Amino acid sequence: MTVDATRLRCNICGGESFVDMPGRPKVRCAGCGSLERTRVCALRLQGDLAPRPGAHVLHFAPERGLSRFLRDLSQGNYRAVDIAPENYPGLGVEPFDLCRDVFSLPEATYDVIVMNHVLEHIECNYSAVLLRLARALTDEGVLMFSVPVEGEEFRDNIALGTDAEKAGRFGAFRHYRNFGRAFIGQTLGMLFDMPADYDLTRYATEAQLREAAIRPHHWRKVTGASVFAVRRRDVRV
């Protein structure tokens, strides 16, 4: 696989060193650990989705570099949460179970909610979770989220069993669902009004995308690096 000769620079931390992941050359920032999806989030929050100063931010499963970026953006109004806060030392993460605690979120409160590659892990109705998160947004707030996209078909499984049995069936990271590319309209698109096609070049220049190590195959096709951005008014149900 060839890699663009463009000089790479992380738009989150400014780092210029990137490391390989299996089958994906130079995608993880060596400085802050960001991946394509986190850099896409930052690009949009630096551009068309830039919030007001002091925005209230809720961040699920907080990525280290993006967490620092959002904390600075919020000027103290930042809240990081996860079901296993011990996995995020030093980030001040509060315990939060999306299946149990999502209904406790105050409505019309957050200007930015970020959740990358979380929905595949939860053992409950992902649609109810997304809709309740949308209700927690302010009128101009934005919910930004990404999900695994492997192939064309949608898959959704919640099963009984021990942790070991679930890991054996769904993999070590327990991915209970996959949002197939062919069914985005019939799944996420049934919940929110979203563009019929995905095109990052509407929001950033090709030069910006290349510099941030976001490869062209992510620009105009739904992938695991695609970040969907929706507001309260986009809810269809």
From TrEMBL:
The UniProt GO MF terms for this protein read:
methyltransferase activity
Domain of life the protein comes from: Bacteria
Q: Which UniProt keywords apply?
A: Methyltransferase, Transferase
Q: Name one Pfam family in it.
A: Methyltransf_23
An example GO BP is: methylation
Q: Which SUPFAM superfamilies match?
A: S-adenosyl-L-methionine-dependent methyltransferases
InterPro entries according to UniProt: SAM-dependent_MTases_sf (IPR029063)
CDD domains given for it? AdoMet_MTases
Protein name, per record: Methyltransferase family protein
From what organism does this protein derive?
Answer: Camelimonas lactis
Q: What is the lineage of its organism?
A: Bacteria, Pseudomonadati, Pseudomonadota, Alphaproteobacteria, Hyphomicrobiales
